[in-house]
């Protein structure tokens, strides 16, 4: 990496050649302009500055670099090819096919339930690596959504099994394969229609499997134990209900030193907390408590009989590591107490790799000795944007539409910002569950595009409304059965604030978002047609009835059961209210928010004599990556340049 | 219909109420502005003024209005439902199903070969109405293009059998159904792969069928006679070849007074003319000759032994009726010798309904006694735009890029046009075969959108380049194997002319076209990136390899056989050269120019860091109609307003 001084010399030379930059003198801020490529879309610039990010792993309790010592493959290795499961028992052994009738209709060993309920994989190795559990999903009864591949000589039909809210969903079962005997045993689940089998965990003794089953209505979660040898149901250890919805996202986690006890996650007291239970189903105690959420179990320190967790106890904008003594419940902060921390615990639980960022630190790594809290700095990134004309990143809070809840915002201001000028301002919004935009990471978690826009003379404003993550159950569930409604009220509080600022040009307000944020963008445009002059909505949900069963019904119920909610939130009947300039963008092969959303809205606009704009990325899915992301963000930027500036 | 005076009074009253119009005084032109609805997209305003247009028919030789005396249904009535043929022998009889295995793969009684070669129907009743011939098309071997219906609860796959240039095409055969015996006989055609059976005609004695067969290469047309009783091939009466292509578009036509002679159409001398032949296959004589084209046989006058035809002999911009004596070949002009005429001959051939329009006459009907030329005016439309601020419509000609061929143009100028001002100017272009834009009909055949644009302050310029219709074979075939290339050279002659005019703003030139005209629009944008600031291309062909076999291979050969021509004309590799603002528009269910064209071009732009705009009409086909046409034209207009004005 070049030193700052070296870069300045380089810049001076470049100026002589191109006249593109201001002469750079020591003490005068250099003014290099960002290109979209500089901003490294699809990744974050400062991650490119610390390539170690993804290449460190624990070999026992020694941290090693993967490029010096690769992560060894664990055998038996189990994997999938074209919807079937394969196994390779040792490096020398041949691959062996475990299932044979896998198709796009019968899927083995893959993530199910459209990755909801924290599901990200479909194969679960037993602790002794002698068996594995796997998902089998029968989606033959699910309607095909007709996606099209337009890249072949003649375009090809490439259907996607997509169960829409209120429609027939797939059937999931769980099998257990015994690697030695080569026998497969399916859990004795009975009729699996409309049942979600989530958060699979092995018992430490390898003899049973724990599953959290959720009903189709998603208001009940049962923790069930099944025999790993004959698949029989052994016990129901816990049942949790909620008048809105339950949403288990973490498997139970056994104490390494006591296989009769485990930690269970629940949001039942209003926040995600850990509960100590035994295998008889007895609740021993609530281990964590308070107005904050537990985000992750990093692992256990056997020596101190503690669990290492990550929480936002210190601030809703932070996440920090704590060790929690299982017996006493005492929490000890392990990290520096600022910023946003992620990490990995060594295998024996004695050392923690702490990868963190703060508003001023792009990226740093510490190694923390769990017992002593002794901390060694392993790496600290230089500011990768040192030589650029960097915008101003501000963070603040205001009250939600309920008058009491704190909401956090970030504001990005042009590098040459002056209070006396008036700037066109764009509200960037996501607003949906399972996500947040503002935290105490570098530049308050600002996305590169905000920097690009600020450089072009815009203010960008981002606020996490109620319904977003990490703020507790009430904060999240206030949107129940009426997605977008409360979220809009909150966002408009942000807009009120913006309009109170002398340097925000209220006649030049824009809004932009993707996915749920696209839904929010259009919702705001049609509900507040005189507020937003320009909007860009990408991959936008238009009507929740076109969204999938798992996510869709959790928040919105079924179109039949919550007809009023669906009607109220649908944008189809609101097309006529569009007044500002709206650019909609969609990946033509989006299997998440299907192209039908965009097509239906455009047709409604066409019928209502309304004139939105539209752009597509053929072959792209729900999110553009690499070059297409660069093109996309330039496209978005140009739209604001055309109509907001 | 209101008188002009009445309208003026009405206008005056409206002005008092709304202040929207200037006070209208006698002698001062009223200034009512057109809305798109006034301009009646999807139809022509002046046709709305003469509703008789489509409702007149000959009962023998008496002209009657359909709303006073409906056209009687002829029995036996033969029709199709869901790809099968049905018959109803009398008004009282039940419908009877003739074919039973019709599907979207096996199609009975419908137009085949994608409506090329003048084919518009699939059932051909014999003169005595005792038999009918019908097409059977097996397209099971043709690749499906995956169109999608996004209007259902869950979008539905609606594939379209679409044989692309160079790919496997459908197989067509011809059956004959005997209504009395209920027997079906198929013509003995042998292997029908890559053979086009076109222009079916019955012999007057009902015993045989004449078909013009074209080979896949489309450089040979054979006139064949088949037995209607056993399907055997009886004779080949004529074979015509061409080094580029033949394109029969009219069945042979028997003389009513001599069933051993018929008229055959051929372009072999350079223009479409009629040739008198006998059923032995002997050419008796060329009946018409000269540098003009015969457009239509209206029918025959038995008394005078003449055929009534429509030609453009008087001017390439006109079409007029002539009677041609079969024996002497003498042509007699029947109509007033100006404008564009269409019409219908009475059943006995004695009277002609002459529906015509001239640059000054929106629509008029005469009845012409064929023998005496005695003409009676039946209807004359008032000027439907009398009360509007109407643009100026000019017509002229210039030389093509070959320096010798006359090309005709139309120019539409704003109502308040002043020579000393400079106007943004839009070139509207089609440019493909089988069509023309400029003729001697009302306002020189100007489309309503041109009036709308002129009203908004644009000049619109339209020119028929070489390759368009009605100008002879050489004029048409100069584009062979390199579509768009010569057409562009000619269009640029028009642009040179525009740039020579002091009132055309050369810095604000736009271009717009649909279908072939969309192809021309993008071709012009990428080949002359510094000329056109703004373009709008609808339903555009991007690469001829995605177009269908019949039309595509006639003009372009196969992608393998004419690799250079396909490469040269493809716009995919030219995306990088796009510089001006381009809006592409496509009907998402376009079965003619498939959405794949747009998707491929947009992807090429995305990859080349080029930024076109795009809009779609979900559920719409190749051309928008009714309300969607109004929306479309407003969308197009707004794009020029945004970027060209």
3D structure, described in words:
2 copies of one chain form a homodimer. Chain A has 645 residues and is α+β, with helices and mostly antiparallel strands. Chain A is built from 10 helices and 36 strands. Chain A has an 8-stranded mixed β-sheet with strand order 29-30-32-31-33-34-35-36, with helices on both faces. Chain A is globular and about 70 Å long. Residues 1-26 of chain A have low confidence and may be disordered. At the A-B interface, strand 9, strand 10, helix 9, strand 36 and helix 10 of A face strand 9, strand 10, helix 9, strand 36 and helix 10 of B.
Observed structural traits:
homodimer; 645 residues; alpha+beta; eight-stranded mixed sheet; 10 helices; 33% strand; globular; disordered N terminus
Task: Give the secondary structure arrangement, pairings included.
The structure is a homodimer of 645-residue chains.
Chain A lengths: L3 H15 L26 H4 L7 E4 L2 E4 L11 E5 L2 E5 L7 E2 L8 E3 L14 E3 L5 E8 L5 E6 L6 E6 L9 E8 L4 E4 L8 E8 L5 E8 L4 E8 L5 E9 L11 E3 L2 E9 L6 E6 L4 E4 L7 E8 L4 E6 L8 E6 L5 E3 L6 E6 L5 E7 L6 E6 L5 E6 L11 E8 L6 E8 L9 E6 L19 H8 L3 E5 L9 H5 L7 H16 L3 E11 L1 H12 L6 E5 L10 H8 L6 H7 L11 E7 L7 H13 L5 E5 L8 H18 L2
Parallel strand pairs in A: 31-32, 31-33, 33-34, 34-35, 35-36
Antiparallel strand pairs in A: 1-2, 3-4, 4-5, 6-8, 7-8, 8-11, 9-10, 11-12, 13-14, 14-15, 15-16, 17-18, 18-19, 19-20, 21-22, 22-23, 23-24, 25-26, 26-27, 27-28, 29-30, 30-32
């Amino acid at each position: 990496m070049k030193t700052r001084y070296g870069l300045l010399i380089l810049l001076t030379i470049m100026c002589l050649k191109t006249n593109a930059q201001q002469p750079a003198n020591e003490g005068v801020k250099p003014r290099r302009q960002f290109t979209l490529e500089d901003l490294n879309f699809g990744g974050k610039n400062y991650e490119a500055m610390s390539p170690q990010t993804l290449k460190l792993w624990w070999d026992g309790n020694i941290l090693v670099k993967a490029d010096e010592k690769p992560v060894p493959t664990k055998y038996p290795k189990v994997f999938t090819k074209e919807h079937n499961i394969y196994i390779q028992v040792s490096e020398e052994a041949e691959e062996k096919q475990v299932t044979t009738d896998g198709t796009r209709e019968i899927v083995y060993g893959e993530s199910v339930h459209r990755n909801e309920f924290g599901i990200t994989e479909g194969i679960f190795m037993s602790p002794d690596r002698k068996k594995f559990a796997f998902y089998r999903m029968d989606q033959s009864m699910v309607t095909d959504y007709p996606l099209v591949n337009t890249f072949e000589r003649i375009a090809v039909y490439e259907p996607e099994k997509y169960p829409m809210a209120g429609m027939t969903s797939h059937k999931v079962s769980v099998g257990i394969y015994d690697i030695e005997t080569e026998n497969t045993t399916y859990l004795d689940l009975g009729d699996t229609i409309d049942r979600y089998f989530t958060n699979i965990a092995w018992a430490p003794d390898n003899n049973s499997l724990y599953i959290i089953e959720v009903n189709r209505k998603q208001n009940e979660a049962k923790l069930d134990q099944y025999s790993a040898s004959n698949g029989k149901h052994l016990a129901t250890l816990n049942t949790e209900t909620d008048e809105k919805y339950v949403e288990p996202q973490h498997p139970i986690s056994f104490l390494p030193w006591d296989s009769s006890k485990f930690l269970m996650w629940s949001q039942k007291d209003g926040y995600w907390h850990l509960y100590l239970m035994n295998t008889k189903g007895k609740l021993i105690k609530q281990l964590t408590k308070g107005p904050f959420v537990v985000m992750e179990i990093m692992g256990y320190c056997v020596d101190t009989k503690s669990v290492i967790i990550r929480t936002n106890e210190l601030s809703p904008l932070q996440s920090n590591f704590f060790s929690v003594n299982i017996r006493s419940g005492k929490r000890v902060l392990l990290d520096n107490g600022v910023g946003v921390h992620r990490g990995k615990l060594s295998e024996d639980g004695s050392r923690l790799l702490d990868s963190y960022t703060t508003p001023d630190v792009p990226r740093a790594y510490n190694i923390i000795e769990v017992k002593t809290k002794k901390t060694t700095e392993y790496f600290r990134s230089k500011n990768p944007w040192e030589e650029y004309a960097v915008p101003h990143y501000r963070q603040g809070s205001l009250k939600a539409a309920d008058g009491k809840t704190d909401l956090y915002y970030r504001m990005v201001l042009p590098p040459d910002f002056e209070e006396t000028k008036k700037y066109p301002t764009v509200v960037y919004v996501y607003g949906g569950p399972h996500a947040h935009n503002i935290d105490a990471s570098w530049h308050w978690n600002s996305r590169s595009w905000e920097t690009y826009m600020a450089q072009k003379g815009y203010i960008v404003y981002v606020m996490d409304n109620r319904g977003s993550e990490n703020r507790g159950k009430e904060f999240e569930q206030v949107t129940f059965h009426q997605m977008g409604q409360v979220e809009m009220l909150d966002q408009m509080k942000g807009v009120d604030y913006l309009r109170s600022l002398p340097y925000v040009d209220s006649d030049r307000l824009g809004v932009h978002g993707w996915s749920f944020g696209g839904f929010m963008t259009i919702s705001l445009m049609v509900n507040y047609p005189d507020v937003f002059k320009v909007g860009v909505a990408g991959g936008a949900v238009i009507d929740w009835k076109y969204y999938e069963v798992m996510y869709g019904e959790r928040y919105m119920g079924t179109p039949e059961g919550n007809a009023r909610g669906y009607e109220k939130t649908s944008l189809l009947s609101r097309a006529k209210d569009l007044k500002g300039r709206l650019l909609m963008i969609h990946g033509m092969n989006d299997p998440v928010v299907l192209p039908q959303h965009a097509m239906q809205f455009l047709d409604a606009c066409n019928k209502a004599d309304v004139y939105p704009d539209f752009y597509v990325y053929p072959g792209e899915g729900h999110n553009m990556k690499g070059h297409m992301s660069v093109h996309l963000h330039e496209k978005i930027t140009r739209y604001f340049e055309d109509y907001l500036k």
